[in-house]
Amino acid sequence: DIPVGEEAVPNVFVGLVLARGRVADQAPTAEDDPGRPAVKTGYTQLKVERAGKRLAVQVTPNASEYRPRDTVKLDLTVRDAKGQGVPAELTVWAVDEGVLRLTGYKLPDLVDAIHPPRGLAVRPGEALLGLVMRKVYSEKGASAGGGGGGPEGAAMRSRFRTTPLFAPSVQADADGRAHVEFQLPDNLTSFRIMAVAVT
């Protein structure tokens, strides 16, 4: 029996070594030595379920349809694998659905990123090998084009954004609840609201 705990997520390898000593009644010949000692090894991978590491994030807007420049109010709930609310840090963003469909965007799976499958190998424990270079990202479309319009165009739609919300650090309380508000731009489109959470 091999106990498998959470420290085994996402996989472990089981190895078996069989050794046999010399078989005395099988004498060697000029061509072969059938009684010689022998060793065999074998490995198998055990995939360990990661459900205990996953959080369920529910995003509930206060309405399903809005007009340009309306304020969207979001209630967020984070629950662990047992269905209990847990304090967590969330990243919440809203993006134009048309842009997401063009790029085939999918939410990142943080559990897969944090717990990638381990290979059958010995790894060094030097943390410096995993350092990542920091990069500075500017907001897409920071330099808006166009112009014109005067007092006669004041009522025209002019605020267009593909990502009206990006909140990188939203704190959920001890019950796993958080609240976010943002104003919609003038786009006549659908926005996909996404959220990921870590404890």
What does this structure look like?
With 199 residues, the protein is mostly beta strands. The chain is built from 2 helices and 8 strands; from the N terminus they run E-E-E-E-E-H-H-E-E-E. The protein has helices at residues 97-103, 110-114, and strands spanning 11-20, 38-47, 56-61, 71-79, 89-96, 165-171, 177-183, 191-198. The chain starts with 10 loop residues before the first strand and ends with a strand. The model has no long low-confidence stretch (mean pLDDT 83).
Q: What descriptors fit this protein?
A:
three-stranded antiparallel beta sheet, 199 residues, single chain, mainly beta
The biggest beta sheet is recorded as:
3 strands, antiparallel
Structural class: mainly beta
Tell me, rounded to a whole number, the average pLDDT. Answer: 83
How many helices does DSSP assign? 2
Helix content: under 10%
How are the strands of the largest sheet arranged? 3-4-7
Strand content: 25-35%
Q: Detail the poorly predicted runs.
A: none
What is the CA–CA distance across the termini?
32 Å
Beta strand count = 8
Overall 3D shape: elongated
Output the helix-strand order. EEEEEHHEEE
Rg from alpha-carbon coordinates: 29 Å
